[in-house]
Design brief:
Layout lengths: L5 E6 L3 H11 L7 E3 L2 E8 L2 E12 L2 E6 L9 H12 L3 E3 L10 H4 L1 E6 L2 E6 L4
Antiparallel strand pairs: 1-5, 1-6, 2-3, 3-4, 4-5, 6-7, 7-8
Length: 127
């Protein structure tokens, strides 16, 4: 089932490399707008406009990449994480499936790690 949006976390990621990768895969990005610590742009893709949010160091060394659309090439966070790792070569973390506020904290700490070591489910306490 396709997720309504995509969010992945990238370790020590280079903002310019991510912008280049997304532009090549999805289409050109508008000028970045800084709002506090957050950066936003709109990607003009063949499927329509995709709002993108980049939050550097959202969790320690981990930056958040949030694509607010179900019109990406990826059906879920894990598919995007795999593509990001293949393109960028940095460790990626994502939720194992859709997530909602109603889930327990125990479930919220379950993550998938995508790295040179492969994929594995981990416990990651982000708060």
């Amino acid at each position: 089932m396709r997720q309504p949006d995509i969010e992945i976390y990238l370790k020590d990621a280079d903002h310019n490399a991510i912008a280049s990768w997304l532009s090549a895969v999805l289409g050109p990005c508008s000028e970045w707008r800084q709002q506090g610590q957050t950066y936003k742009c709109d990607i003009d893709s063949a499927a329509g406009v995709i709002p993108l949010t980049w939050l550097p160091k959202a969790v320690g060394k981990w930056s958040s990449l949030y694509l607010e659309s179900d019109s990406t090439p990826w059906a879920d966070d894990l598919a995007c994480a795999r593509a990001a790792f293949a393109a960028l070569g940095v460790e990626i973390r994502c939720a194992p499936g859709g997530w909602s506020e109603e889930e327990s904290e125990e479930t919220a700490d379950r993550w998938i790690r995508v790295s040179a070591d492969g994929e594995e489910e981990i416990t990651w306490h982000t708060s």
